[in-house]
Amino acid sequence: MVRPNLLKSYNSKIRTNGPLDDLIENFGGTIFHNSYTPAPDTPRSLACLHSGLYPERNGCNTRIKWPYYYFKEKNSLLESLVEKDFHVSFYATKNKTNVGPIPKGAKQKINIYNCLFEFEKNVNKDLKNQENSAYFLTLDDYHWGNDDYGHNSLGDYYGQLHLKNYIESFFNNNNQDKFDYVFWFSDHGHKLYSETKNTNINSLLNDDRSKIHLLVRKKGQNQLSHDYKLRCVFDIYPTVLNIINKTIDVELDGVDLYGENGHDYIVFEDHSDFSVSMAQIINCWAVRTNDKFYFESLKSKELYDVVGINKYKKKNKIQDELLYTNLIRRHTSSYDETTKQFAVLEFYKELRADNEDLRFSDNSRRFFKNRNFILKIITYILKDLKKRW
Ligand SMILES: [Zn+2]
């Protein structure tokens, strides 16, 4: 849940280093300054990571559709590693593994640890034996910091500090250069409380929630280099596939992070109410290109020039609206589905408005209006009488 625009490493407007900036500066590797998730919550973002695909294609396309229950691809990141004879270990807290962050097929083939000590012991053992191994370490510490202190600057500070302490201690025990590659990323960002009050709905999909931290370190890469192309959480899978020299027969939405080209655009979709509950409806969408941000909800459409970090300049006129909506259509089914339902709902409104004045077939007025009026007068008189008594 680490949010890049709260880090100096990503946001030059921030004057002093936070706890994670110290770590990032000395970590080495490539920092990807413009990486996004198409769906800013844990289940959907993880499914994008596991599949290399947009939510619509991987089956995890609403708020509580966790990969274990809804992932519909037969290939996944972890399974591909297993198929290449990698020894795969996964760590997450027990309650996190219970909700289903790992696709069903993969879960049966990997070692799952709920105890950090055991996980680290396993890492150490494998590293000594030089086995082909892959480790997936889920750290919720930043989230916990925010739970403890609130979604404010204090929560952000302590969240970063907890995370830094753990990551530092892990790599003190296991030198970075023991690993051929380290992928360090967050699944999505978040909003501070102060930002959720009276905010424009479009800000739900701006960089605060949709941008992710992504840093990839190749063995021996001690200097930090910078990449500014449009990247996505679903690019990690194809990158790993190229590293392990494996092909799959699915055309992925993601592209290799080491490839020449980034994306021309990323499509986002989300719920305006992002609380954890059943049958959530996706009702906002956005498209991010290098220099534009298009946002659409059921009631608004907006186009912005992205002129700097956290700086969007609204355009008076939306050029190429169809271009954006076509991209949204191509990568989501929620857009057509929800906008159709909304259009029908609008007809209901007209129907209701008509009903107010509905007449009988002989064209005489229906009683509704008059009856309501008479009832109001009677209630008023009764209240008035009560007061007088
Ligand atoms: Zn998350």
Description:
This protein has 389 residues and is of the alpha/beta class. It folds into two domains: 4-263, Alkaline Phosphatase, subunit A (3-Layer(aba) Sandwich), CATH 3.40.720; 343-388, no CATH class. The protein has helices spanning 19-27, 42-51, 55-58, 67-70, 77-83, 94-99, 104-107, 116-129, 141-149, 153-173, 193-196, 207-210, 236-243, 321-331, 334-356, 368-388, and strands spanning 29-32, 35-36, 87-91, 111-113, 133-137, 181-185, 211-212, 214-218, 224-227, 231-232, 266-270, 284-288, 292-297, 301-308, 311-314. The strands form four sheets. It has a five-stranded antiparallel β-sheet with strand order 11-12-13-14-15, with helices on one face. A four-stranded mixed β-sheet has the order 6-8-1-9. A hairpin with a 3-residue loop joins β13 (292-297) and β14. α9 (141-149) runs antiparallel to α10 (153-173). The longest helix is centred in the last third of the chain and has 23 residues, at 334-356. The mean pLDDT is 92. The structure holds zinc ion. Residues 1, 42, 187-188 line the site of zinc ion (ZN).
Overall shape: elongated
- Number of E-state strands: 15
CATH topology of the largest domain, what is it called?
Alkaline Phosphatase, subunit A
**What is the CA-CA span between the terminal residues?**
63 Å
Average residue-wise pLDDT: 92
* Rg (CA only): 26 Å
| CATH homologous superfamily heading of the largest domain | Alkaline Phosphatase, subunit A
Strand order of the largest sheet: 11-12-13-14-15
- CATH-level-2 architecture of the largest domain: 3-Layer(aba) Sandwich
Number of domains: 2
Helix content: 40-55%
